[in-house]
Amino acid sequence: MSMTVRTRRRQGNGAAAGASDETPLLQVADLQVHLPTGSRSEIEAVSSVSLTVRRGERVGIVGESGSGKTVTGRAIAGLLPTSPRVRVRGSIRFSEREMVGAPAKAWDAVRSHTVGMIFQDPLTYLNPVMKIGKQVREAVSPGRHRSGENDDALHFLSLAGLENVQEVAQRFPHELSGGMRQRVLIAIAIAKMPDLLVADEPTTALDATVQQRVLRTLDETVSELDTSLILISHDIAVVAGMTDRIYVMYAGCVVESGATREVLERPKHQYTQALLRSVRSLTEEGMELYSIPDSLRVSWAREEENRAS
Ligand SMILES: Nc1ncnc2c1ncn2[C@@H]1O[C@H](COP(=O)(O)OP(=O)(O)OP(=O)(O)O)[C@@H](O)[C@H]1O
Ligand SMILES: [Mg+2]
């Protein structure tokens, strides 16, 4: 099947007047997110996150479970729970357009052109009673130039690395393997031709070989479409080969950031060093990832306290 390479729009939709090409696509400053956990209780899921994504750039967010990666990604995609008790503070700017406090309609516009999200568990996000082809077709933005294929849905399915796309399009989600479903989610996300793709643990649920293949597809697809990428993972090894820059999160905060290679070769923060040790022990000894030792957490918390006081 022939595949048409399309160049991505350089001018983001809804970009503020005067925003130049040098203006980062996304600027997040001092993001804080409070989520309700009970009728009276809440949690500060994200305490302090600042990050920048330039056009065409790939950025990784790593950190252990519960560090706030998903909540950060969802905040960026405007996909936090809609409860009025969810509080977002700080700034999320797409091409200088402030989205914190923006009305739902403005977020709809941003989600239809600017940012798309890929989640870990495709079955939750796919409609179980709708054929795959229709689900991808519904995602294709109206008014986009046609790909030259008879059916844009097939084009995006094949771009996401699926074979026999005519047949796949006729199936329902439960008739596909996990790897295929994840590719369908990629197809749906790229069908909107967003400027930025937020991929949250896109391969964590897959076994190792399928994981590699899906990651390679994601890599090729964002290159081909010149899409910026935020790749979220608890697994540094996944992010290492795919990103230009990396943000390390711990307990709702970014604790270290920089060029991916620089951070991985010369981690400054104790927490990053511990994360890296856990990856090394995995690769060298074939062991399971061990979690960050409690002693380290305590000493790190103490360091923070000292710094604050
Ligand atoms: N919908 C929610 N309601 C209440 N608390 C939440 C909600 N989602 C996440 N949290 C809490 O916010 C904090 C950050 O969670 P988040 O899901 O962002 O972590 P994560 O880094 O993505 O972890 P993982 O690697 O396990 O996916 C956690 O303490 C979590 O329990
Ligand atoms: Mg998560």
Q: What is the annotated CATH architecture of the largest domain? A: 3-Layer(aba) Sandwich
Indicate how many domains the architecture comprises.
2
Overall outline:
globular
Query: What is the CATH class of the largest domain?
Result: Alpha Beta
Largest sheet: 6 strands, mixed
End-to-end C-alpha gap: 63 Å
Output the strand order for the largest sheet.
Answer: 6-7-8-3-9-10
Order of helices and strands: EEEHEEHEHHHHHEHEHEEHHH
The structure class reads: alpha/beta
Bound molecules: adenosine-5'-triphosphate, magnesium ion
* Radius of gyration, CA atoms, in whole angstroms: 20 Å
Poorly predicted spans: 1-18, 285-303
How many strand units? 10
CATH superfamily of the largest domain: P-loop containing nucleotide triphosphate hydrolases
The whole-number mean of residue pLDDT values reads 83
The tally of helices reads 12
